TrEMBL record:
Entry membrane topology: Multi-pass membrane protein
Organism of derivation: Bucorvus abyssinicus (Northern ground-hornbill)
Name of the gene: Slc15a1
GO function terms (MF aspect): oligopeptide transmembrane transporter activity; symporter activity
GO cellular component: apical plasma membrane
Keyword Magnesium applies: no
Family of the protein in this entry: Belongs to the major facilitator superfamily. Proton-dependent oligopeptide transporter (POT/PTR) (TC 2.A.17) family.
Protein name, UniProt field: Solute carrier family 15 member 1
C-alpha cells in the first residue's frame, strides 16, 4: 500500500526513529548532571564516563551492521536490539530512584555502589541498542522503495533527518524540565526517575510502532557483509606482500594489487577508492572531540551561570537545545543562501574546503567558550586554601566597630548594620582580635581551623561588647544554581523562623541557624515569631548560586526589619553568553557533518556505503576517546585553559587536513565502474574467442 506515492511502511519507520532519538537524546541531556549530583562524581569523572558512553554508542554500529548483513537481517536486528535498548533505559530509570536504598530516609542513597552498578549496566545496554540499530534503520527505510522512486527516496531521507532533529530538540527541552521537578517517597529530590523513565517509555512505544508495521515491510534477506570482504581483501594483500618482500619479485603499482591472486579486479579497485576516502578520515575525530563536549563541559559551564530569562527559568542542561534549534534554522539557510552567495562570488567551495572551514569554526567556538569561562572565573568566590582561614565581620549594633587582627595583621572598620567581605589569614598567624566600639573595648583569642570560613558577629549593647565567632560550614558555591540561606537573631528574645516551607527552628539571641538550600531565582515568605507576636516579610529575589546571612533586627506587629549580608555572590554571567559558542559550533556542524557524508558517498562505489558509514561513525567514537585522553593527560587546573588547548589542537589538525585535501584528486565512481564493466565485457569476448578457436581446432583434428 502507498500514500502520496510513498510506501505506507515508511511512516512507521519515521515515527519509530522520532521516538528512538527522543529517547536517546533525552537521556543523554541529563546524564552528566545525574553523574554529578546524584552519583556525587566530580566534574572530571562525570565528563570521562559521559564520553566513554558516547564513544561506545558509536562503536557498536559496526556490530549492528555485521549482525544485520550476515545473520539476522535488518528487521530482526532492529526488533531484538530495540528490546535490549528499552531494557537499558528502564534499568537507568530504576538506578536513579533515590528511595531504592535510602533506608534511613535522610535523602541520600545508603548503597551508592548498587546505583552505580545499575547505571553502568543500563548505559552498556543502551549503547548496544542505540548503536546496533543506528546503521539498520535508515538503510531499512531506503529498502522500502522501488527502483524508479529515487525522488521519493531522497525526500524520505530529508524527512528522516528532520525526525531525528525534532526528536532531539523536543527531548532536550522536556527531560531537563522533568529532572527539575521534585519527587520521591520519603524525601523530595530532583526527579531523575521521571527524566529517565519518559525516554524508556518512548523507546517502548518506538518498538511497538515498528513491530506494528511488520506486515507492510519489504524485508531483504541478509546478503553477507561487504565490510568483511573488504577486510579480507586488505588482509590478504598485506600477507601476500609480506611473503614476496624479497627483491626478485617485481613491484606492483599499488600494494592492494597483491590481492589479485585471490580477489577480482572490481573488488580491489573499489577497496582502493574506499581506502582513499578513509585515509582522509584520519584527522576528523578531533572535530567530534570538541563537538560532543556540548553535553559535558558546556553543560557543566552552564551550571555556574545565571539562567534567568525573565519569566522563564532555563535549566543548565536545556542550553543544549540551542544546537538542535539552530540546526533546524541553519541547514536550509546555508543551503539556500550561503552556498549560492559563495558560488556567485566565483569561489570554488569544494566539499573538502567546507570540511576544513567546519573544523576552523569549531576551534573558534571553543575560543568563545574560553572567553566566557574567563568571565565566569572572575565572579567565582575565592575560598581559603590549605594553611589559610577566612573571616568576615557583621556589625549587629548601632555604633561603628573597629577590629584589629593581632598580631598587627590588619584592621577593619565596619559601620552600623553593615558587613565586610571575607578576609584571608594564615591560620597559624592569627592569634587574637581586639574589638573597639564607641568607648568600649574587648579582646578575644581565636583558634581557627585550616581551610574554614568564619563570621564574626559584633554588637555593642548596654552591658558591653558581645562578639560571637560563627563557623560557616560552606567552602564551595551551591550547586545547580541553588541558594544557601541562614538567619542570625539580632533581637533580645528567642525567635522561631520559617522561610517558605523550611523551618529554621528556634534561635536564641545573637545565635545563627544552619544554612538551608533554596531553589535559584525565587522569592519566599519569611515568617518570624517572637513572644507570640508573628510578623512576616517577603524576601528579595535571590539570584542563582549565592549564599546569604539574613539578620533579624526588628519584629513588631507593624514593622519587620531584616538585613542581607552576601556570603557568596550569585552567578552573574548570563547563560545567554553561551549562545555565540553554540551558534559557531552549529555552523561548523552544518558545513562539516552534512558535507562529510555527502562527500564520502560521492567518492565511493554504491555498494561500499556501509563501509564508509562505519568509518564515519568510528571517527565520532575516536573523537570521544580523545576527550578522555586530553582531559586526563593535560592536568590543567583552569577550565578556560583546557578549552584553549582543545581549540589549538583542532586548529593544528585543521591545517594538516587542509594540506591532505589539497593533494586529493576527486574521482567519479560511476566512470570507474563503467570502465570495469567495459573491461569485463572485453575479457568475456576474449574468452569466448579463445574457446571458439579451441573448439575449431579440436573439430579440425
Amino acid at each position: 500500500p502507498s500514500f502520496f506515492g510513498y510506501p505506507l511502511s515508511i511512516f512507521f519507520i519515521i515515527v519509530n526513529e522520532f521516538c528512538e532519538r527522543f529517547s536517546y537524546y533525552g537521556m543523554r541531556a541529563v546524564l552528566v548532571l545525574y553523574f554529578k549530583y546524584f552519583l556525587q562524581w566530580d566534574d572530571n569523572l562525570s565528563t570521562a564516563i559521559y564520553h566513554t558512553f558516547v564513544a561506545l554508542c558509536y562503536l557498536t554500529p559496526i556490530l549492528g551492521a555485521l549482525i544485520a548483513d550476515s545473520w539476522l537481517g535488518k528487521f530482526l536486528t532492529i526488533v531484538c536490539l530495540s528490546a535490549v535498548y528499552t531494557g537499558g533505559q528502564a534499568v537507568m530509570a530504576v538506578s536513579s530512584i533515590n528511595d531504592l536504598t535510602d533506608d534511613n530516609r535522610d535523602g541520600s542513597p545508603d548503597n551508592m555502589y548498587l546505583h552505580i552498578a545499575l547505571s553502568m549496566t543500563g548505559l552498556i545496554l543502551i549503547a548496544l541498542g542505540t548503536g546496533g540499530i543506528k546503521p539498520c534503520v535508515s538503510a531499512f527505510g531506503g529498502d522500502q522503495f522501488e527502483d524508479g522512486q529515487e525522488k521519493q527516496r531522497s525526500r524520505f531521507f530529508s524527512i528522516f533527518y528532520l525526525s531525528i532533529n525534532a526528536g532531539s530538540l523536543l527531548s532536550t527541552i522536556i527531560t531537563p524540565i522533568l529532572r527539575a521537578q521534585e519527587c520521591g517517597i520519603h524525601s523530595k529530590q530532583r526527579c531523575y526517575p521521571l527524566a529517565f523513565g519518559v525516554p524508556a517509555a518512548l523507546m517502548a512505544v518506538s518498538l511497538v510502532v515498528f513491530v506494528a508495521g511488520s506486515k507492510m515491510y519489504k524485508k531483504a534477506r541478509p546478503q553477507g557483509n561487504i565490510m568483511i570482504q573488504v577486510s579480507k581483501c586488505i588482509g590478504f594483500a598485506i600477507k601476500n606482500r609480506f611473503r614476496h618482500r624479497s627483491k626478485e619479485f617485481p613491484k606492483r603499482e599499488h600494494w592492494l594489487d597483491w590481492a589479485s591472486e585471490k580477489y577480482d579486479k572490481r573488488l580491489i579497485t573499489q577497496t582502493k577508492m574506499v581506502l582513499k576516502v578513509l585515509f582522509l578520515y584520519i584527522p576528523l575525530p578531533m572535530f567530534w572531540a570538541l563537538f560532543d563536549q556540548q553535553g559535558s563541559r558546556w553543560t557543566l559551564q552552564a551550571t555556574t551561570m545565571d539562567g534567568n530569562f525573565g519569566s522563564i527559568q532555563i535549566q543548565p542542561d536545556q542550553m543544549q537545545t540551542a544546537n538542535a534549534i539552530l540546526i533546524i534554522i541553519m541547514v536550509p539557510v546555508v543551503d539556500t543562501v550561503v552556498y549560492p552567495l559563495i558560488k556567485k562570488c566565483k569561489i570554488n567551495f569544494t566539499p573538502l574546503r567546507k570540511i576544513t572551514v567546519g573544523m576552523f569554526l569549531a576551534s573558534l567556538a571553543f575560543v568563545a567558550a574560553a572567553l566566557v569561562q574567563v568571565q565566569i572565573d572572575k565572579t567565582l568566590p575565592v575560598f581559603p586554601a590549605s594553611g589559610q582561614s577566612q573571616i568576615k565581620i557583621i556589625n549587629l549594633g548601632t555604633d561603628a566597630v573597629t577590629v584589629q587582627f593581632e598580631p598587627q595583621l590588619q584592621t577593619a572598620n565596619v559601620k552600623s548594620m553593615e558587613s565586610t567581605t571575607y578576609m584571608t589569614f594564615g591560620t597559624s598567624q592569627l592569634q587574637s582580635l581586639s574589638i573597639t566600639s564607641g568607648n568600649k573595648a574587648t579582646n578575644q583569642t581565636v583558634q581557627l581551623l585550616e581551610g574554614a570560613r568564619y563570621t564574626l558577629g559584633v554588637k555593642n549593647n548596654a552591658t558591653g561588647i558581645v562578639a560571637k565567632l560563627l563557623f560557616d560550614n560552606v567552602t564551595s558555591k551551591p550547586e545547580e544554581g541553588n541558594n544557601l540561606i541562614r538567619f542570625i537573631n539580632n533581637l533580645a528574645d528567642p525567635v522561631n523562623v520559617t522561610m517558605g516551607d523550611t523551618s529554621f527552628g528556634r534561635l536564641m539571641p545573637l545565635s545563627a541557624s544552619s544554612y538551608s538550600l533554596f531553589p535559584g531565582g525565587t522569592k519566599d515568605e519569611i515568617m518570624i515569631v517572637t513572644n507570640s507576636i508573628p510578623c512576616s516579610v517577603t524576601s528579595k529575589a535571590f539570584g542563582f548560586g549565592s549564599a546569604y546571612t539574613i539578620t533579624i533586627d526588628e519584629c513588631t506587629e507593624r514593622n519587620v526589619n531584616i538585613t542581607y549580608s552576601e556570603d557568596i555572590p550569585p552567578n552573574t554571567v548570563h547563560m545567554a553568553w553561551q549562545i555565540p559558542q553554540y551558534f559557531i559550533l552549529t555552523c561548523a556542524e552544518v558545513v562539516f557533518s552534512v558535507t562529510g557524508l555527502e562527500f564520502s558517498y560521492s567518492q565511493a562505489p554504491s555498494n561500499m556505503k556501509a563501509v564508509l558509514q562505519a568509518g564515519w561513525l568510528l571517527t565520532v567514537a575516536v573523537g570521544n576517546i580523545i576527550v578522555l585522553i586530553v582531559a586526563r593527560a593535560s592536568k590543567l587546573s583552569e577550565q578556560w585553559a583546557e578549552y584553549v588547548l582543545f581549540a589549538a589542537l583542532l586548529l593544528a589538525v585543521c591545517i594538516i587536513f587542509a594540506v591532505m585535501a589539497y593533494f586529493y584528486t576527486y574521482v567519479d565512481p560511476n566512470e570507474i565502474e563503467a570502465q570495469l564493466d567495459e573491461e569485463e565485457k572485453k575479457q568475456v569476448k576474449k574468452d569466448q574467442d579463445v574457446s571458439e578457436k579451441e573448439a575449431d581446432h579440436v573439430s579440425e583434428k
